[in-house]
Design goal:
There is one protein chain. By secondary structure, this protein is mainly alpha-helical. The protein has one domain. Helix content is 76%, strand content 0%. The longest helix has 31 residues. The chain is globular and about 55 Å long.
Length: 336
């Protein structure tokens, strides 16, 4: 493999490390409710951080954006809007199905669609080659790893505490929410994949290829901003929790850190796709999901989430992580 590909893999791993830990600071929030934390996280991750990155890295920003057609802007924005809806559905799905089953469905669907859809639209001929066979095998092994890790998490929940599922929740409806979330979640990757005209125009105006993705993110993230803000405002009004913002709370710094880690992860991932070659936004997405899941589970082990889990659950977890590592190797070989 070339040096560029190794760099792309390293950057994708770094992005997975940040993304896998971006929700960790939420464990330390004490006074604020979920909607208070999520509003600050949303503003930092979808407005402040991407604006700073874009202004700092993209050349001739005014000329670039004024030259774009409505279609070039609309596709990343609409895909971002779909992803924003997925963000809202994610919280609802996890509440009703529990972490393990919810993550298995959502991340499994999101990883597969986010990997294969860009290939099917842009380079479908790759799938009938030896490289395509390796990529498809990697996707299959990745799905197995996600399911096994999800099963391990389910066992851990049974071993550690009463199930988080609400006895009043309608399982079928919750399952549909998770499936809808899994379908919409990779749209943030589609936003980047189908916004490559913007990235290419940025390169023509002097932006380096590694930084060109920063020209696309503002449109996709602006689309995702709307559903997240709407849901936060709805909860803040319904729960009467606006008053939690009246005094400066130490809790403020945790969602800020969450936002920096989240946007940092996607910024690094966007840069990684430039080094991963023509299939960067497809194979790269699968690798990004793999590294994120591995990181999240290892962080859970380190922070004591598996303290009361039985030996069968732990063995199943390590089996799932091994399968995800094997999927990484297959997809990396397919992207040579």
């Amino acid at each position: 493999m070339t040096a560029h590909l190794w760099l792309g893999l390293a950057l994708t791993m770094a992005a997975g490390l940040m993304s896998g830990n971006c929700m960790l600071p939420a464990k330390f929030v004490r006074r604020w409710q979920w909607e208070n934390t999520w509003l600050i996280f949303t503003l930092v991750s979808l407005v402040v951080a991407p604006a700073i990155l874009t202004f700092a890295t993209v050349k001739d920003l005014t000329g670039l954006y004024s030259s774009l057609s409505l279609q070039q802007v609309a596709l990343p924005f609409l895909f971002g809007f779909g992803w924003g809806i997925a963000q809202v559905l994610f919280g609802l799905s996890i509440t009703r199905l529990g972490l393990a089953l919810g993550y298995a469905i959502i991340i499994g669907l999101g990883a597969v669609l986010g990997t294969l859809v860009p290939i099917l639209f842009e380079r479908p001929q790759v799938l009938v080659t030896g490289r395509g066979a390796l990529i498809l095998a990697g996707v299959a092994v990745m799905l197995c790893g996600i399911v096994v890790a999800g099963k391990a998490g389910r066992m851990r929940e049974r071993d550690s505490a009463p199930s988080p599922e609400s006895p009043h929740a309608r399982y079928g409806a919750a399952l549909l929410l998770a499936v809808a979330c899994g379908i919409l979640a990779p749209m943030i990757n589609f936003s980047l994949a189908f916004g490559q005209d913007i990235a290419q125009e940025a390169v023509r105006r002097g932006t380096t290829p590694a930084n060109a993705a920063y020209a696309v993110w503002p449109f996709g993230l602006a689309g995702g901003l709307l559903p997240n803000l709407a849901y936060c405002f709805y909860l803040l009004n319904r729960n009467r929790t606006w008053n939690r913002f009246q005094t400066l709370s130490p809790d403020l710094w945790f969602p800020i850190l969450m936002g920096v880690l989240w946007m940092g992860a996607f910024a690094v991932y966007g840069t990684a796709t430039a080094f991963l070659g023509a299939l960067g936004t497809s194979v790269g997405w699968g690798l990004f999901q793999i590294f994120m899941i591995i990181t999240a589970n290892i962080s859970g082990l380190v922070t004591g989430e598996w303290t009361h889990a039985g030996a069968p659950a732990r063995r199943l977890l390590w089996s799932g992580l091994f399968l995800l590592a094997a999927a990484t190797v297959l997809m990396a070989l397919g992207n040579r």
